[in-house]
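ugh ok fine here u go
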Amino acid sequence: MSRPRCRPAAMPAGLLILALSALLLTSVSEAGTAAAGTSHTLRAPLAELTVVSERVASGLQRPIAITGLPDGRMLIAEKDGTVRAYHPTTGLAAEPVLDLTARIDTSDNERGLLGITPAPNFARTGILYVAYTSLPAGALTLARVPIGAPERVQVLLTQEHAEYGNHNGGQVAFGRDGYLYWSLGDGGHANDPFKSGQNLGTLLGKIVRIDVSRTCGPKPYCVPFDNPFVRAAGARPEIWLYGLRNPWRFSIDPVDGSLWIGDVGQGLVEEINHIRPWQGGANLGWSCREGTPVFDPQQCRPGGRYTDPVFEYEHFLTENCSVIGGVVYRGSVTPEAWGTYVASDYCSTLVFAVRPKPGGGYESATIGNFPTQPTAIGTDVRGELYVLSDLPGWLNRVRFERVQPASGGQPANR
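structure:
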């Protein structure tokens, strides 16, 4: 919106800005509500949806994260530190568009380049935000870098993580609020050895939220004033959510700004959490709980308030092993699936669909399988889905099909 050329003399500038902001927010909200209502009337029951995958690229080396660019390209992060570009019309580029291998610690199966997302003004600046485990000791690292210019990396925030190589988290994404969100695992090994999940004095086992558009003192970022622990003694002010084990993949719904988090379980259950923008400071339970079951009673605080997952599935004695958090479908090719969150499991490759019910609660269903070893699910600029496969090195385009349920219907998972 352009700046007004004049203003009524009786209205102070500050009040005018607030009024214009309120008007703009109301217009955006009404437009979003109208779109949601239109799509809702076309949505199919989850039991009538299934996913179909089409391989569009191969030859990737342990692809681990994916993000869409405004020009239609998809950027794919490979574990060793390279970033490849794919475009639907030209395919997978032979040479990487960014090479950070000189900075990356890949000494463990779960270490490496972990996350990538473009800056909101990427079309003008070419800036990417990346998360990785850095040399020499695997510190969890958040940085920004111009595409194609690895020598210009600027480290923003780090968290020591030397003892164990697993549970690094690593997702990065911008919210509708313009802030950058980053997920970090609990420190690794098993059983939350450092009791990080419930400890607000460390970034381990958390999702942080920072303002990377400004600097504050010596920090190359600022902490938003409304972060929940800004004034809490002994707490890291960057923390947005806590009580996580290994939030390997989360996403932010572009329509309502909510977070959908896939948090990898210890061995009993895998869980998916749905956190609304007003739920900053939520405690997701680890390591008092693993999903909804109690895991370590000594980590449970008297009177503690824990936010339940909206979906969980069994890990123990099944082919499941590790939830791969996904995205909410907001594309236009399949309006029947609009508003459906899609996730998977690394071992079983089952595809889980979860959707809020209009009257409250959630519905869920298993809607097919992805190709082997899914590591990340992302969208292109139009909101259409793609999924990566780890050791095969594949990129697959995903679409939905509507199927008629068998007699009696297909039961939901939960």
